[in-house]
Amino acid sequence: MSHYDKLTSHYQTLSHFNHAQAMLGWDAAANMPSGGSEARSNAMAELSVHIHRLSTQPQLEDWFGNAEQEAFNTEQIATEQQASLREMKRQWQQATVVPEDLVQAQSIAGSKCEHAWRSQRQENDWTGFEKNWKEVVALSREEAKIRGAALGLTPYDAMLDKYEPGTTTASLNTLFTDVKTWLPELIETVLEKQKSESIILPSGTFSTATQKALGLEVMKLLKFDFDRGRLDQSVHPFCGGVPTDVRITTRYDEQDFVQALMGIVHETGHARYEQGLPTAFAGLPVGEARSMGIHESQSLFFEMQIGRSKAFISHLSRLSADAFSAHNDPVFAQDNLYKIYTQVEKGFIRVDADELTYPAHVIMRYEIERDLINGVIEHTDVPALWDEKMKAALGISTKDNVKNGCMQDIHWTDGAFGYFPSYTLGAMYAAQYKATMTQNIDFDSVIQSGDLSPIFQWLSDNIWSQASLHTTDELVKRATGETLNAAHFRKHLEGRYL
Amino acid sequence: MSHYDKLTSHYQTLSHFNHAQAMLGWDAAANMPSGGSEARSNAMAELSVHIHRLSTQPQLEDWFGNAEQEAFNTEQIATEQQASLREMKRQWQQATVVPEDLVQAQSIAGSKCEHAWRSQRQENDWTGFEKNWKEVVALSREEAKIRGAALGLTPYDAMLDKYEPGTTTASLNTLFTDVKTWLPELIETVLEKQKSESIILPSGTFSTATQKALGLEVMKLLKFDFDRGRLDQSVHPFCGGVPTDVRITTRYDEQDFVQALMGIVHETGHARYEQGLPTAFAGLPVGEARSMGIHESQSLFFEMQIGRSKAFISHLSRLSADAFSAHNDPVFAQDNLYKIYTQVEKGFIRVDADELTYPAHVIMRYEIERDLINGVIEHTDVPALWDEKMKAALGISTKDNVKNGCMQDIHWTDGAFGYFPSYTLGAMYAAQYKATMTQNIDFDSVIQSGDLSPIFQWLSDNIWSQASLHTTDELVKRATGETLNAAHFRKHLEGRYL
């Protein structure tokens, strides 16, 4: 057996334990009663230890060395095998580069900080939070330095690499600096324009059962493969499971159906990416989704490019009026639903933000975490910086309001630095795909027709089936003819909101 | 760390992988879409391999030897530790005694036989089945010989030991010979008595949602702990999960609610045993259920002793009439429901059999598999023997009808010999508990009152909390003052049916 084959077999074994971990995680969120949590945590921790052990087995270093030699000696080695080897090695390096005692220290500090944060946030308690967070930041900086040294990157670029391989501070600075030149003014203009619009908001009871039935109808329209996936409920919506059995979740508010419905559209985008990954590489790193940002590009393509188009909202209007037997209710009129789904508002909370203000939230987080990890600022500087950037971006202050400021998100509490940019990268990629797609596809007519296959075929050909065969830049260039270009995003936002 | 502590830690690690396996198995039956099955099978097979590897690690032999020495040297070693050591060693011996190549050969032959049986049974194809089954029987005989040699038991007793440690052919022969002296006549008498009774059978639509709501009400009455468990649906009802998160399932027939309802009562009995196991030994073999038969004694205590009592059926009458808004429908009258749930009928199929004829099915299977594994008969003798025994027990013939004869059950297709007696042992234990319990508890009044706590307290004190601290005989003797005595079972059946 060649070392390449040994590695392939090893990573397939790993994927079986990852399958178990994914399903236990989904079950914990979607099914598990409260009493089950201790035994589940123990089981999942044991699996993590085992997965880590398999991921860092000492013989892997030799196997990679020998496999690269084999590749070098074989003229005929397929491009796909080279990509597979590259991605296995990437995962191996990610797993081995950080010493185990640091990983453990981070896990303990992160759990402690996150746990305390749950009540500290309610109490607006920066002083209490800061004491725990100090350690989390210090350990993340240490991790970033170690990763940076191994990869030849700056500390923050090394953290970005975990979620967005190939993305750098330099490229993000360029993209986001551009956005900052036009976004604040665009927001003001749109707010002014929307002032005169009247919207009828849903109210009254929308039963969970009916909302779910409606969600399933919309998933059918989006060609979710129900032989290979399910829709369930959880407190925080997510897309989990494995490519042949994708588990998406949503949460229902019986006072208002619009959020759950669009949430389902979003998660269906994630799901179709997973369902569309190539079976030839099942269980191998090269067969996995390219990155967080590319994953988000699919959910946001579904949510923003398809879901919030007028054509799609005409389907939502019809299907929801049918579901709630409310054909004469003006809430469900296409125009009204479109206004609801494109209403812009300045707010403190990122997860509640609309399409237009969302990038402002992401960019300020990016700037803060970049400087924090690179040691340019200290963790105690964050609340004031947050306030300052929030005022510049959206004109609202978070002074003495950390619970709606820098303490609002869970990500930083356990050291997930480098993750936020993916959201806006995803939105930008989605706009760029749409711009390319419309050169050959009559986008709105296709959606209007109710058979969205041509759109999905494009995504399948260009994104889903490509998995991690190419770098992100290559993937996007092959799909759209250029690497990421924020101009498409601007054009999309201006086209929709002006 | 003592070797006893090392073993404890090792078995707790194992329990975490068993947790994963249990939940994946439940999910596969209750949730998984068809497309997920290949990846799930691979993941579960990988987990099985890993669990087997951990269960048979070479150092365990030394650890057990040293731990026994430690126990010998320590006067103060707790009885509970001795029991824990005994049960860990029992599981280790079970896992190591059969050579891996035999396990693998059995797995392949069993899968092949079971797979083909699914269509062969429909086609009444003994000739086809016999070709595959020959190998399964041969390998099971080999397994039985190896186990028997290691344990100093006859081959069939060694197979019994897998499910019912301590139970022997000698004890079963005594119990079942006794039953055979009175059961056939009792069945005839009861059938004659019931001839004149009129029963109104349910018909019409009983929606799955309402049946589930009714099932949940009944589970509440039975004090199922919903913080540590759930009710779901699957094709074959079962009780799965882990003690702090017990997953029971049922299947609903919209034409008739009575089977699903009593099925829920049965599975709730299994569940409460699991939920009542002592947390002090969580994750350790000594903290697990004592045996298949004792497990079945709980489900059958719930189903037969509680569930089919007139007092409990008065609750079922009220709750089901409420659920289906059918207070004037004579189907739901207490007397009628009682007649439905105690109707006796001779039939070919064990899983459809009533309380009274069920033991006849089990005893004939026992006699056949005992002689088959001990080499007294050959696998080709089974259809004729089946026909002969069926005629003796219930007066019906299965000649040229193997699909309703020896090919009706899945158990033998993949070599689960030694398992059938547990069902009737469970029914006998349950009758014996009831006989003891009624010395101090006014059984029917307690049920009638709607607060069944005194009954559950007895089960908790005597069975659930005792887990595997004692041998089965000790457990039953401590609970009832004597080892298993079929007289209680006879008295129960005569009391109910005569």
UniProtKB/TrEMBL annotation, chains A, B:
Zn(2+) binds at H266, H270, E296. Its cofactor is Zn(2+). The keyword Protease applies. It is an enzyme of class 3 (hydrolase). The keyword Transcription regulation does not apply. Binds 1 zinc ion per subunit. GO terms for molecular function: metallocarboxypeptidase activity; zinc ion binding. Broad specificity carboxypetidase that releases amino acids sequentially from the C-terminus, including neutral, aromatic, polar and basic residues. This is Metal-dependent carboxypeptidase. It comes from Marinomonas profundi.
